[in-house]
Each structure stands twice: as C-alpha cells, then as structure tokens.
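Data availability (excerpt). The following record was deposited with the supplementary files.
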Amino acid sequence: MKVKQTKSKTEVTGMNLPIKTKNMKNNQDFSITLLVDNTPKEAFDAINNVRGWWSEEIEGRTDELGEFKYHYQDIHRCTIKITELVPGKKVVWHVVDNYFNFVKDKSEWKDTDIVFEIAKKGDKTEVRFTHVGLVPAYECYGVCSDAWGTYINGSLRNLITKGKGQPNQNEQIAKKHGLERSMSDQNYTTAFLADQTPEEAFAAINNVRGWWSGEIEGDTDKLGAEFTYRVPDIHYSKQKITEFIPGKKVVWLVLDADLTFVEDKSEWKGTEITFEISKKGDKTEVRFTHIGLVPAYECYSDCSNAWGSLINGSLRKL
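Predicted structure:
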C-alpha cells in the first residue's frame, strides 16, 4: 500500500480500504445549500462578515487571507486560517487548531476545511456550505451539525437576505444538547459561613428588602410569588420564586430584565438566582449562585461585583 500526501488530500493506492482523513471531501461531509435572491457579491460579503452571523466573540480579520480566532466560553475555541478568497465565488477556511471540552478527542475539527461555494442558479444565487471532514463518525457531529444548521440556514441566510443575522446562539444550542453542565463552573457564585441556624439564614434571605438595596414590589417570602426590583434608570428585573424549601434552598427565576448599561438589556432574563443553605460543622453555609451570569455577559463585571458586596456584606450582616 502506498500513501501519497498532498496539500489538500491523502491518496491511498494498492489496497481497497475505506480510509477517512479529516480533509478528504466525501458525501458524508456535513453540507447545506441555500438559494437566495441576492447577488453572488452580496452573499460573498455576508459570508466574510463572520461577526454578523456566527459570533461576535472573534479576534482578527475575517475578510482577508490570514487567521482569526473563535471562542465560546470554555466549550469551544479554534484558530481558523482563511486560505481561499475568490470574490463572488468561494471562501475556504482551514482549521489550524481546535479545542472542545465535551468530546474525548478535543481537537476533532483540527485540519478540517470549511468551504463556502457561491454560484448563479438561474435568477438566484446558490451558497453551498461544506465542512470537509465533519462526518457522522465524529463524536461532536450531532452538536456541530445542529449548530451549523442553525447558523447557516438561519443566521447567515438572514444576513444575506435581510441584512441582519443572529450570531451568538451558542447558549441555546448548548442547553439543547445538555452541555450546560460544561458552563456551570462559569456561573457567578459566592459563599459565606455564619454562626446562625439554617432557619435564621433562610428567613434573612427571604427578607429581600432587608439586604438588597433598591425598590422592591411584591412578596418575597412564599413559593410562586413574583416581585420586581428596581434602581431607577439603571436596573429593573422581575423575579418568580420557583423553589422555597425552609432552611435549605430558595430559587428565583428572572422573568424579565432591563439593564440600561449594557447593549443586551435583557441579559438577566431566563437566568436563575439560587441560595443553598447547609450545616458545616457548627456553622451554617449560605451558597449563592446566579446561574447564567457568566463572564461572556457584558454585565458580568458590574453584576458580579454588586452581588459580591450584597451577599458577602449586606446579607451576611442581616
């Protein structure tokens, strides 16, 4: 058997064996085709506006030959080299390096190619997306093919046809595939020990007006209650108490939010604020976690600092 290495493929001769390489294009490579009314140039320009359809968390130029980096929290990061740019016709990315935290082979994308081919089809433009090397044998295939489907069929199509894509949909995709556990260590959390009983800590937590400075309307001390928190012109949020276990646990679901100091004013919406209470020897531990408040959020720095002061200062003193 002879194996010949070339820049773009591996040729195997002398034996009739099914051999898969990461950059061998075949009918198992993940592929999607779009037909749009826009011109090939408009499709080409949209593809190269990667921040407009894939992710705003990108470092480097995406519209010229060279490298750029993509990352999503600690779940996925990769370095991509743009190897072909043929205006109105073709874009090719080569994955130089890759890291996944949710599969055994964390480098699965490495040395694959991501290809966009553009062609006129009658009075329409066809965009064919192929991730050469992303095949069903890969552990990441289910998550990655679903993600590409979301971004290419949805976000990129909308950027081409409507002028606006929907980048940064990774959190929804991660939750859909049960990867939220991978993000759990990034949720803001803090804890303290107190001499008081778990029952006393529980009562203090539910006396929200006693420790969370701001305007509060509604009941804060019973299951199913909803209350609003407001600091005029800065912060509004509406919480629902979804768990209420005396001496053990309190959970608030944020139903709505309006943070005036960040671009996405609803960043808190859909997050959960939890208080877990337990005995630690002769003391009581109160562990606070804001599930969904992660470093990728624009408000993370200000909000984590505020929570730190409130929980370790105001609530502890109460």
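Summary of structural features: The CA atoms of residues 136 and 142 lie 8 Å apart.
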